[in-house]
Design a protein that fits this description.
alpha/beta
């Protein structure tokens, strides 16, 4: 499973997809710190209620200025007073991560046990393109990245590659690349996603 950080809606896909490995990426280092903080608190909490209580109270240790900043932002969000300039979001965690909370133990187990890779780069970067091209057995959560960037990615032979993007709640696109496998495939990340074999 590959997921951008964004609002971490990808948490809901963890118990659904049950990945054997997870790659989290984002161009923003603070977003990666946010994910690592959420993961650490999630995997050391008893249940969803305990997890939310700890986020609200800041009941976990932080070791860096970045972690302290994220902790403060989370507390402000939980109190309903996080300013837009610091990343305000209208949706509470209970709504954003509903499926992950409904399957808390499974999500916690996967986050604790599955190999995790963190990549500090955007999807449209040359390094990301080179890294992903020869991979297979991928389910990719793109969030709403195409609201901000249009770009292409190539897959050498995507026999088991699927992509999900959510432009806004209620508008979801799932693209399965398996019908195009057997040759390199180019995916155009735009609205909607488009894909084509490169041997035609």
């Amino acid at each position: 499973m590959i997921s951008v950080v964004g609002g971490l809606y990808g948490l809901n896909l963890i118990p659904l997809w049950r990945p054997k490995r997870i790659t989290i990426f984002d161009i923003n280092p603070m977003a990666l710190t946010y994910f690592q903080t959420i993961r650490r608190v999630f995997t050391t909490s008893r249940d969803a209620s305990h997890f939310l209580e700890r986020l609200t109270a800041g009941d976990y240790e932080v070791a860096t200025e970045a972690e302290q900043f994220v902790q403060e932002n989370i507390r402000l969000k939980q109190m309903g007073c996080l300013p837009r300039s610091r990343g305000s979001t209208k949706r509470p965690y209970e709504q954003s991560w509903q499926y992950a909370f409904q399957h808390f133990d499974l999500t916690k187990q996967i986050l604790s046990e599955v190999p995790l890779e963190i990549r500090s780069e955007p999807m449209e970067s040359e390094s990301f393109r080179a890294w992903i091209r020869d991979q297979n057995n991928l389910w990719i959560y793109c969030s709403n990245i195409t609201e901000f960037h249009y770009f292409d990615l190539e897959f050498a032979d995507p026999a088991n590659v699927a992509l999900v993007q959510i432009i806004y709640p209620g508008r979801v696109q799932l693209m399965d690349l398996a019908p195009l496998s057997g040759a390199p495939v180019k995916v155009r990340f735009e609205i909607p996603l488009r894909a084509e074999r490169m041997d035609q």
